Amino acid sequence: MLGLELSVRTTASHIHSGNFGGPVPNAANKLLSVISSLYQDKQIMIPGFYDDIEITSAHRSLVDEIPVDTDSIRNELGIQRFDIDNDDDYYQKLLLEPTLNINGIRSGYVGEGMKTIIPNSASAKIDIRLLPDQQPDDIYQSIVELVDDLDPSVNVTKLGSFPPLAESPETPAAESVVTSLERAWGLDVVEIPMLPGSLPAGYFKRVTDVPILVVPYANPDQNNHGPNEHLDTVCFENGIKTSAMFLTRFDS
Fold first, then answer.
1. What class does CATH assign to 173-251?
2. CA 22/CA 35 separation, integer angstroms
3. Taking the domains of the chain in order of start, what are their residue ranges?
4. pLDDT tens across 124-169, in order?
């Protein structure tokens, strides 16, 4: 993951759109123009963005085997359709393609009724989900250069990053993990090649060079980063059992 903030400031304060609209720059318009240039026709337009992506056939095979009920997902989220051409591509899009996501935009007047101003400042927070072997620092530098070409008045600030990681499905530890999960939960295990989450696993890999396998123990409706984020006690207990079983099997 690569986190960014784009910001721009124009006049000393908000000004009246009737008195100054047209010749005086609008901070919100300037920011949105730059952001819209970063992503067009479902493609991220950052130069060289896709060059270093390495997805193996083994990873693609794992994704093809993931069961998905797209109707249930849509109903749960309260949406009519996904932003994909085919529902069968749900996990291909989620796991095997990078994303550029606007977290939030702040500018101007957003209270009740109207206030005819030209905003003097605007900012947006963005996260970019990366795939192996994209390098956060290289992507960040490309964004800085692109934004400078588009509009030098827009500033780019790096908020944080994690390098991407996808472990080989054939790593010997994977078999012990799968067996431990099956015994602790009494369910079939679904293997996925990578998680679209922000974890320091990539740094662990660089330092230790040992297999890194991530096992989510939480319930599917845990609601990450939202209201009522929670962990069911049965998941907590089964997580303890899984860890203990894995350590026993892997040690032997």
1. mainly alpha
2. 21
3. 2-53+98-161, 173-251
4. 999 999 999 999 999 999 999 999 999 999 999 999 999 998 888 8
Note the residue count of the chain: 252
Pairing of β 117-118 and β 99-107: unpaired
Report phi then psi at 139, rounded to 5: -65, -40
How far apart CA 132 and CA 150 sit, in angstroms, is 28
SS (H, E, C) 159-223: EEECCCCCCCCCCCHHHHHHHHHHHHHCCCCCCCCCCCCCCCHHHHHHHHCCCCCCCCCCCCCCC
Residues with Cβ within 8 Å of 32's Cβ and at least 6 positions away in sequence, in order, are: 105, 122
> Where do we find the tokens 């100054």?
20
Q: How many CA atoms lie within 13 A of 102 on its CB side?
A: 13
Q: What confidence score (pLDDT) does residue 202 get? A: 85
**One-letter amino acid for residue 31 of the chain:** L
- Residues 237 and 217: their CA atoms lie apart, in Å, by 9
- Helices 27-38 & 136-150, crossing angle to 10 degrees? 130
| Fold (CATH) for 2-53+98-161 | Alpha-Beta Plaits (3.30.70)
